[in-house]
Amino acid sequence: MLLTLSDIKGHSIAATDGTIGTVSDLLFDDDSWMIRWFVVDTGKWLSGRKVLLPPVVLGHVLPSERTFPVRLTRAEVEASPELSTHLPVSRQFETSTYDYYGFSPYWGSGYYLGGYGLYGGGTPMSRDPEVQRRADDIARLERNAEPHLRSGEEVTGYHIQATDGDIGHLSDIMIEDTDWSIHYLVVDTSNWWVGQTVLLSPRSSQDIRWTERLLYLDIDRETVKRGPPYDPSKPVDRAYEKRMDGYYAPVRPTGLLTTK
User: Fold this and answer.
1) 110 and 174 both lie in a single domain
2) Which Gene3D superfamilies does its entry note (predicted)?
3) Is the pTM for the entire model greater than 0.70?
4) What is the CATH number for 91?
5) 193 and 117 co-located in one domain
6) What is the mean pLDDT of residues 98-102?
7) Is residue 14 within 8 Å of 23, Cβ to Cβ?
8) 117, 150, 183 — which closes off a domain?
9) Comparing C-alpha atoms, which of 152, 151, 148, 258 is closest to residue 214?
10) Is residue 27 within 8 Å of residue 5, measured between CB atoms?
């Protein structure tokens, strides 16, 4: 199911023995466009402390209750590594948090774990000693590597630059909750193409200038205009996704050059 960042924010996180807090942000990898962490504001329970939860611990969203159940107790969350400020998040902090929850880091697993430990009913990779040893070896090598984590809240509002001019600003992101990948960038083009909102594939992204709050595309304005029309009043169905995939398939693969 596709969820938007704006909708996910404010959802409650329910442990097995009570509420933990609410989602305040999502951290994503700007190289793979995968959600890596949920930032949860614990409110009065832990005096406003924020904690990071990997998507692998989340169950299916309960839309009517605006709640994500997690297979953790409140005590487990309370004892997790303390995050003083959620950006930047160091690789050391990520590693210690994964170690605490008993899952292999996403950079050492060979593929993203999001959802599979729960949705698939499988065993977490860390339970396999050989896999865990390999993951630990990679984690040691990459412990000090610079993560590509970015805040979804932060990038909202970034201006979007096509190869031949500005097309608008990022108003939201759409996320697939089965693997927690960012499927679409929601772009408000009202300053260029009046009255329109368009969806873009992250595969069309070429560069992000964080200091300038700019996201550069490797497509031109006309390519954006010719894309499958998007109606914000209607849900994005599989037929629309298929058209989008076909339209943006020739565009370069996901993977960005990022500028600080």
Assistant:
1) no
2) Photosynthetic Reaction Center, subunit H, domain 2 (3.90.50.10)
3) yes
4) 2.30.30.240
5) no
6) 86
7) no
8) 150
9) 258
10) no
Domain boundary among 150, 179, 207: 150
Q: What is the pLDDT of residues 197-255, one digit of tens each?
A: 999 998 899 988 988 999 999 999 999 999 999 999 999 999 999 999 888 876 544 45
**Strands 12-15 and 67-69, how do they pair?**
parallel
Same-domain pairing of 143 and 166 = no
**Residue in the block written with tokens 């996704």:** 241
2: exposed, middle or buried (C-beta count within 10 Å: 0-12, 13-18, 19+)? middle
Alpha carbon 116 to chain centroid, angstroms: 16
Q: Which domain holds residue 231?
A: 156-259
User: What is the mean predicted confidence (pLDDT) over 126-150?
Assistant: 56
Conformation bin of residue 10: beta by default, left when phi > 0, alpha when psi is -120 to 50: left
CATH code, domain with 187: 3.90.50.10
Query: pLDDT value at position 147?
Result: 60
* Pick from 77-91, 188-202, 217-231: least confident: 77-91
Going from the C-alpha of 253 to that of each of 40, 79, 113, 202, 219, the distances in angstroms are 31, 40, 21, 9, 13
Strands (DSSP E) contained in the chain are: 2-4, 12-15, 18-29, 34-41, 50-53, 67-69, 149-151, 159-162, 165-176, 181-188, 197-200, 205-209, 214-217, 257-259
